[in-house]
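Reopening: VOC domain-containing protein still failing for me.
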Amino acid sequence: MTVLGGFHHVKLPVSDVRRSIEWYRRVLGFDVAIEFVEAGVLRGVALRDQAGTLMLALREEPRLAGQMRGFDPVALGVPTYDALLEWSDHLDAIGTPHSGITEGSVGWLIGGVADPDGIEIRLYTLQ
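Support: Ran it again with your exact input. Result attached.
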């Protein structure tokens, strides 16, 4: 069997692409890498983290976005507990609600970070 090398990207449904771009930029520091325009309308984007190691795609699908409210499909890796503390401070500084740092099944995490559609993004230590 051929070896896999990780994820190429994860795609999330959103109800408003532009509003979501701003949230993912402000809260998680993602920048737009690719725009998907159909019939002159922005319908999706691929976002990349500042280190260029992650790609997260957003696709305009309001019905699906509503159905995912409260679900946590993505846990973004954070290298260390100290880096997770920095994320907690950042979220507090920009007024983004979160669970605080809690112990996970492996490592530590910040949960309760909900995007504009209520989809939860978690930050999880890698060790």
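Residues 31 and 47 are 5 Å apart (CA to CA). If you still see a failure, please send the error message rather than a screenshot.
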